[in-house]
Amino acid sequence: MTRGLIQVYTGDGKGKTTAAVGQALRFLGRDCRVIMAQFLKQKDASGEVLILRKLGVEILFWGGDYGKRLIANLPLEDVENIRKEGENFLKEVMQRIKSKRYDLLILDEISVAINHGLIREKNLIELLRNKPDFLEVIITGRGAPSGIISIADLVTEMRKIKHPYDQSIKLRKGVEY
């Protein structure tokens, strides 16, 4: 059995989730099982989620509403409750990968959730250290934490040189989502 690696796609450039979805398609093309957990993204808001679901990928969501709200402006009690939800979601992901035979786990935007203090880096490291040996894991999001980078087998940094956002071009259905 092949050992599953840990891949990280980070940086301020476009294409981190797209790279992960491309890997998912490769896995699916080889009759492998894929699960994706999206952090801080709206449920069913993107084209990739719609097609991956049709292809049999299990997709879990957490924190879509928090991506729109500025956490720093919330009362401490609310932030603590959000953190507990995030940690419970990560535990649910851990239980899923232990209870079913998946070949690929995508943790989409988990780096951003860690950077906002909503997921503890040490808990992600625990998941990575205790994953089934054959499970490939892809981590996406800007600002991947150094502890995650150090245990990853592959790290790619997407760097923005020029982007339509800078020209006030709005998000385009089918391109950005």
Automatic annotation (TrEMBL):
Alphabetized InterPro entries for the sequence: CblAdoTrfase_CobA, P-loop_NTPase
GO BP annotation list: cobalamin biosynthetic process
Gene3D superfamilies: P-loop containing nucleotide triphosphate hydrolases (3.40.50.300)
Record-linked SUPFAM superfamilies: P-loop containing nucleoside triphosphate hydrolases
GO MF annotations in UniProt: ATP binding; corrinoid adenosyltransferase activity
Protein's name according to its UniProt entry: Cob(I)yrinic acid a,c-diamide adenosyltransferase
